Amino acid sequence: MAFTSPFGSYIAVVEVDAETGAIIIERFVAVDDCGNIINPLLATGQIHGGIAQGIGQAVETIQIRVLVGPLFHTQKSNAP
Hints:
Blueprint: E1 7-16, E2 23-33, H1 40-68
Antiparallel strand pairs: 1-2
């Protein structure tokens, strides 16, 4: 049995409308060290899912901080 730990780095160039708070992603670069890829389609899907999840979490965190100020803990719930 072999264990793998993929690593990656994502960076985004965004534009934020100061009046509406709308966010426009102008450029997004994802670099991942996936190791030996067995199924390229699944690997691509994992990267796309990670990008979508990361953007969603970033936007939600920004909205929460605007509404309630700085957060010390960003976990949504303590449900198992």
